[in-house]
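Example A, followed by Example B.
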Amino acid sequence: MEFFDTHAHYDDEKFKSDREEVLKKIYNAGVTKCINMGCDVKSSKMAIEIANSHDFIYAAVGLHPEDISQTEEELWNIIDQIKELAIQNQKKDDEIINNEKPNSNRVNDKTTNCKKVVAIGEIGLDYYWRKDNKESQKKAFIKQIELANELKLPVSIHTRDAIDDMIAIIRKYKLEQSGVLHCCPFNRELVKHALENELYIGFGGTSTFKSSKNAKEIVDMVPNDRILIETDSPYLSPEPKRGTRNDSSNLKYVVEKLAEYKGIEPEQMAKITYENANRLFDL
């Protein structure tokens, strides 16, 4: 089986000591495409560096709601920097060095010069950690939706404890290149509105948790052509690896659980999610 991890953080400090070994491990486990998400300017730059050094990894750049600045001047400056990173590194098949596509089997090659920022993310709303800057979070989210539309890129959306505001924004602001509701919250109304607004739904480790009582109900809501898989590595390891550092080789457990919910074979689920991700991210 081939897997496409649509959301990971290999720039995270938890991979500092063995990043290259882990990336080789996940590729050998069948993860032949992976998107490393940025959360601020620094992590977005590192996501690009990792992507440009590994043919099977792509990057997204964005400002996570947990990292919103206190002043609007700082906020707009950061988003301007995110925009510049996206423009300079957006994937273009005709901008690869020597006009040749890189070898997809080459796991680590620092000479690769493919422009491959494929999304704006992760962006969104998070009122779990911060409740004092809700308006700034909403402004940053909307501004980055507008940026994604301008650059013709999809978005990766984070949401936590912000269901009503998230629904209001995705209903009001059209996502011209669609996007994914990352780490799907198991909330029927949110998923309903996300699907109505042509978003894909990303499922990860939480879909395997015994405590996720309505996971099957939510998975059943999502048509097969809108399902994506992810890890959010190094976080949210699926059962039976829960409590350990997550990496993309654990996608097989997510695929097995989603296939069980849908009543299909894991191989079919892996294929469905791989094709969906290729379509969304234009790969």
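Example B, a separate protein, is given below in the same form.
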Amino acid sequence: MSPDCKLKWILMLVFFPLFLFGQAKEAPILFNNPSFEDLPKAGQTPSGWYDCGPQGESAPDIQPGSFEVTKKASNGNTYLGLVVRATETWESVAQRLSRPLEANQCYEFSLDLARSDIYMSPLSNSNITGKVNFVSPCKLRIWGGNGYCDRYELLYESQLITHMRWLTYNVRMSPKKGNYAYIILEAYYKTPILFAENGNVLVDNLTPIRKVVCGPEKMPDPKPKVVEKGPDPKPTPQTKPSPGKIAANTRPDSPKTNPVVATADEKMERTTVRKGKIYRLEKVYFDSNKFDIKPESEPELDALFKFLSENPDIMVEVGGHTNNKMWPNETFANELSTNRAKAVADWLVNKGIEAARVQYKGYGWKYPIEPNTTEAGKKKNQRVEVKILTING
């Protein structure tokens, strides 16, 4: 073998594994200035972003500090403020991505959204004098295109942003019409059930866009419960759940630990709780696809509030779960479960529980406890749970 041929084989042996590794783990697509960091200023697009609003209207704002907006940033020091107007105009920003989104590929990233309860601004092109509070809820839309303001394909649309607390949204996108080198973030209100009103949405903390596997084609079966081997326990008499009790539930969060097993009518009491234990709020109710707590949920929530009031050293996580009825809209499932968990957490905080003691998280359809093949199974999977995070602080 000639020296040149030997050199080629050596180079191939050295660099081919690196090539395979690079193919397996594709670098994420990066945003320029993903946290909208800049000097706070009204009508000024943050560095790295391009104003795509209509001519004659002001540009988006670098908040806080303008129009009486005082909310602290979710990440860093500043964030993006977008408004919609009763004149049927709205604000948007765009930028060129570090690498194009490819057609028929699936991508995910997250961002933080909120609404300010104060956004006082004068109206342009209007006979109304003085300032108006741009406080109505609106949506966030994300477009793909091949120019700064090219809205070629709608890739994502959020629910109405009604909450004033920063909430993380998981964005899942899959371009169908082409490859897109540009992305647009747009405040929006105009759907068949919404009217043009003055509103705002705040945006912060965009994460890198990562390519993910599309699917799954169907919902996975629930994970089997781990059964510990040992002597058969003595039979115990069966009792019906009593009103107002919080039934315990298990979820295999980690394969390293066995699920916590408890009787169906076990109360949440100091003598029974331990770190990691999960309780199902069986009598907390919501209307279909909504997250407003129904009045008949009060007794169940009161029981939880009483327990937390009597045990101030315990911290909990409220977890929201859905079934697969909204498949394949995973984004909506995650948002709905998160908003339901947040609704319960907010109820507790408004009653007097310290906010630092109540976390919340939406799990979408990731953790079914029954097969999603029957209406009864789907009803059980759509649930709210409480997990003990810490005891004794």
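On Example B: The chain has two domains: 50-212, 247-390.
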